[in-house]
Amino acid sequence: MLAVWVFSLSAYEVLTTKDQHLIKQCGACGWFFLDETKNHRRKWCDMQTCGTNQKARRYYQRKKQASFPTAV
Q1: What phi and psi values does residue 32 have, to the nearest 5 degrees?
Q2: Is 42 in a helix, a strand, or coil?
Q3: Helices (H), the chain
Q4: Which residues of the chain are modeled with pLDDT < 50?
Q5: Is the C-alpha dihedral spanning 35, 25, 33, 56 positive or negative?
Q6: What is the distance between the alpha carbons of residues 51 and 53, in angstroms, rounded to a whole number?
Q7: Model-wide pTM > 0.70
Q8: How far apart are CA 50 and CA 29, in angstroms?
Q9: Pairing between strand 23-25 and 32-34?
Q10: How confident is the model at residue 1, as a pLDDT?
């Protein structure tokens, strides 16, 4: 029960004291995170998991499209 209270208090604190435009949703997993980067352009909750997976997926799609050129 204490963990729920601590989590709720933390969420309340973030939502009431931080700028709401800095709260973003991860493009990969859907979790919310606080973007405190210098330029505020972070896209993923964690680069090591979600960011790496998304970048690999985009790379695979680009390579796949390059190997099958479209006919005009």
Answers
A1: -95, 150
A2: coil
A3: 2-17, 52-67
A4: none
A5: negative
A6: 5
A7: no
A8: 7
A9: antiparallel
A10: 79
